[in-house]
Amino acid sequence: MVNHPSHALAMATPAPAAKPTLSKYSRSIPFLRRPQHLVGDLAGDVGFDPLNFASSPERLRSHREAEVKHARLAMLAAAGWPLSEVLDRPIAEWVDERWGLGLISTLDGSDRVPSPLNGGMDGVSPLWWGFCLGLTAAIDLKGVRNARYDDDEGERLPGDYGFDPLGLYPADEEGRGRMQLAEIKHGRLAMLAVAGFAAQEYLSGVGVVDETLMFFRPFQL
């Protein structure tokens, strides 16, 4: 009896998994064709680009970079907006009573934060504006530098600044994919939320925390 080890090894070795075929139609709008460059490589890609903004791989990466930046800023704003309406006046009064600095809350009489629609932007300290603009410029310049010196294969993910001081970013690919998907989903929801806050306060004339007391001031119900 003759053994054939090479033949046995070939039979025992599983064939590489075939790459799934991309659908011709968008997952988000099934009656429209899938945009050419949305091939599922980026987290949260459901083939939604009806206006064809991502007309090339370069523009796709540029738009994703901008989306991630706005998503992260919106998540901070979605938390900071109602928190400032709850805490700004008590903190200003406490600091003024303790140290006599003459601080005045920037909230208006309806507990609304300063915004382009609410007004009151002139009541914010110029030092704070300078800090915000300086920090924004530094982050944006870092993003431009990353994009300019990115390798030709585009291995750097858009929005990746290498910032993870708490080590929350998983080491495995599956965990990283979940984290990226969670970030972009929460970021997109936060962008809608902040736009909703601004419109709601402008139209109603009341702070969002006063319209949803069950969330922010449950003991006042």
Distance between the termini: 87 Å
> What is the typical, i.e. mean, pLDDT?
85
- Which oligomeric form is depicted? single chain
Number of helices: 6
What is the helix content? Answer: 40-55%
The main β sheet shows up as: none
Order of helices and strands: HHHHHH
Q: Describe the global form.
A: globular
Number of strands: 0
Low-confidence stretches: 6-11
Based on secondary structure, the structural category is mainly alpha
Rg over CA atoms, rounded to whole Å, is: 25 Å
Give the percentage of residues in beta strands.
under 5%
Task: Annotate the secondary structure layout.
Layout: H1 5-12, H2 57-99, H3 126-148, H4 173-204, H5 208-211, H6 213-216
Helix pairs in contact: 2-4
Description of the structure:
The protein has helices spanning 5-12, 57-99, 126-148, 173-204, 208-211, 213-216. By secondary structure, it is an all-alpha fold. The longest helix has 43 residues, at 57-99. Mean pLDDT is 85; it is low at 6-11.
